[in-house]
Write a structure and sequence with these properties.
alpha+beta, Aminopeptidase, 4 helices, about 30% strand, globular
Length: about 150
């Protein structure tokens, strides 16, 4: 069973660990290093200013999710699932729920993915998102509902 709960201040260090564990190698591949002070500062800023949720799988914390519901889109800011919980359908279920929400509100679902993270790009493509642009080091991926190709 997959459930979401609001992250609390007590989750901050664990959530940072999840981000570093899941994204760290891609950051190093893109920028040459994981700059700990910079990464922690950026994380603390976004953690404090956003609605981060903890993904629980069978009552165990498995990852983090951050979604920005904007006027003109639903933006998937972060979905990080610990490697031990990957390939269990967690990301697929959450992404499909976001797609259904986007369809019901007639809004696109959008996200960015590091260009070096080809596995993530393929995952999103399998779920109907397509590359709609590029910004430095990232692909912009968008889902426009059932007509998306």
């Amino acid at each position: 069973m997959i459930t979401l709960r609001p992250a609390t201040a007590q989750d901050r260090d664990w959530a940072y660990y999840v981000k570093k564990k899941t994204l760290g190698s891609y950051v190093v591949e893109t920028w040459g290093a994981w700059y700990e002070q910079l990464q922690r500062s950026f994380f603390d800023q976004t953690f404090a200013e956003s609605c981060v949720q903890i993904i629980d799988y069978q009552e165990q914390p498995a990852g983090i999710l951050r979604v920005e519901r904007r006027k003109d889109e639903i933006f998937l800011s972060e979905i990080y699932i610990l490697p031990t919980f990957q390939n269990r359908g967690i990301g697929s279920l959450l992404l499909e729920e976001l797609k259904a929400e986007a369809r019901s509100q007639h809004l696109p679902l959008q996200l960015t993915v590091l260009q070096v993270n080809q596995a993530a790009r393929r995952f999103y493509e399998r779920h109907g998102l397509s590359c709609s642009g590029e910004i430095k080091h990232h692909y912009v991926m968008t889902y426009h509902g059932e007509t998306n190709h």
